[in-house]
Every structure is written in C-alpha cells, then in structure tokens.
Design a protein that fits this description.
This protein is α/β, with parallel strands linked by helices. It is built from 16 helices and 14 strands. The longest helix is centred in the C-terminal third of the chain and has 18 residues.
Length: about 375
Amino acid sequence: MNNFSNFDLSNESQKALEGLGFKNPTPIQSKAIPAGLSGQDILANAQTGSGKTLAFALPLIEKIKNNTNSSGLILTPTRELAKQIFSVVNIILSYHEKIRSILLIGGEGIYTQSNSLKKSPQIIIGTPGRINDHLDRGSLNINNCDLVVLDETDKMLEMGFEFQVRDILKTIKNKKQMLMFSATLPNQIIKLSSKYSNNPQRISIQQNEVLNFNIKQDVIKVSPKDKFKELSNQIKKRDGSILVFVKTKYGTEKLSKRLKKDGIKSTALHGGLRQNKRSRIMDNFRDEKFRIMIATDIASRGIDVPHIEHVINYDLPQAPEDFVHRIGRTARAGSVGEALSFITPNDSKIWKSIEMTLQRLSNKGGDKKVFKKRKRR
C-alpha cells in the first residue's frame, strides 16, 4: 500500500497522520501495519530509521480504540528510545479520546509513576528494568495485556535483558498479540519468538529498501586545518536543527567549545556521559533548546528527532554502514533533509568504500545520483 489512506484506520488516526504530514508509508509500515491490524503476530527485521514506531503504534492504538478493555505494552532497551516512542504515541493519542499512556523508565520517580498507574493507562511504554520494578511492587498489573511490542529486540538481548523480558512475558496470562522488531535476527531472537509468538508473519526490510532518497547529499573536500572554519561557515548559513558527527568523545566536547568561541551555541552527546545527563541533553535538543548537537556514533544510536534538517559528517565513520545510519537521522517520516560530508586527503580510502556502498544501494533503488561534490581549496 502506497498511501496511509488505504489502511483500515480510524478517522482519528488518519487525522493524526495528516496533521503530522505523513502521507506515504515506509516499506516496513506498508507490510507491518496491515498485519498488525489483522491481529497477526509479527517478527520483523528492520533497521533504525525505517519507520518502525508507527508500524507498531498504529495497530496498538486501533486495537484499544475498537476494544476499550484492551491494553498494550511496549518494551524498549533504552530510556531514550522509550521517550521517543512515548512522544510519537502521545501525538497520535491527542486525536483520540479516552486512551491514556504512561512512560515507565528509570531515572524518574517510581512513586509518581505508581500514582499515575492507578489511573489505569491502556498503553504502557518502558524499559525492562523499570517494568519489572513495578511488577515486583504490585503497582503494575499486565495479566490481561493483549498486545506486546518488543522494539530493538536484538539490542535488548545484547544489553542483558533477556531474562527480564522473559519474566515480563510470563506474567501475561491473557492470549496476546506479539509484535517483535529487530535490526538483526540471531537464533536467540528466533527462539524467543517461537516460544511467545503464534505463527508470526516474518517481515524483512533490506538495507536498500530503507536508503532514503529524500536526503540531499553534498560533499566538501577540505584540508584538515580548514575543517573548523568550513564547519562554522556551513552552520551559519543553514537554518533548522543540525546534527554534527565526530569520531571521539573528546572530539565532541572540543568542537562544542570551539563553536562557542565562534559565537555558535551547541551541545555535546557521547557515551561517556551519565545516563540522566544524556537523557537531559536529548530532551533539550528534541525541545529545540539547542539547534546544534555534536555526537559520536555510539551516542547517536536510536536518535529519532523529527526536526533534524541537516546532518554534517565532520569526521567520517570507519564503516559505510555507520554512514548510512548517520544520514538517516534526517529526512524522517517522508520529510526532506540534507547531509554534508567533509572529506580530507586522509579520508580517501574510507570515502571510496562509502561511495561504493551508496552507489550500490542507490542503483538498487533506481536513483544513480547519490551526491554531488564541491571542492574547497
């Protein structure tokens, strides 16, 4: 299906999609939404940035709208991802009446959450650790939950949450619909699906299907000594939110300080920060308190901020796959965006690999012009 209007969605959900500017579903949405709406279990292989959130949020919301006794649970590996999903779900719910959601993650008051749970929200979104905390305290009852979503399942298991996830699933006594999404499908996930799903529909979205051609790509050849000056100039001439990628944790802080001296306010995000500080930085960037964020690849995993208009590769990544992931932080959900990459003479080898990967994926997608080059002396 190439238009959301073709899906069997309520008027409220259709209006929400229109209000958000969503017209054409992504490949994962085209396959997963009809399956989810029909009540099928799903085991989906799809990358971050492919539109997974709507692929499971819409079937869940429609299920609850059609049956007020229904409830759903969405499990994610990280607080950041849980917050992003919660934000999207609440935007859609603003067009619906009498469907409530709650976010259950660490770093926030458990007593406040317990009081909010007394209002019986139908959609629970959270991380395995905090969900289990509430189950142990008796403040959360999911016995009758009839739809469960596991998002980024592979990352959840990699982070050591398998036993917690299994404990949560064992708690649910009701016959449930299972929607599992994962970037990879190792045997561990196949076994988990076999145990807790009922003949799931297998959906696989290949990388070439998610390469986003709404991204205008540009390349600037620059000497190492001129990189910062060029970055400063590029930022000053661009409007909207900008995500700048660098190689190291130290590099994020250093670049942010240099930009500050140049009169440009920015924030730095990297894996060396405490979880609560990372969450605060992400919240501030999402709320547009900062226009520019400097980040490393590790810290950027799972970033889904709709208003990012520009991605700048100040330093190139070491793997072509990371380049595709980076530029995918812009042009979300059918919007358009721009990606700019700085290429120094030292980058020629890795850039050739990136270029070949982009060209190969582009040819499969039917568009041979991936980027344009501009030289700087």
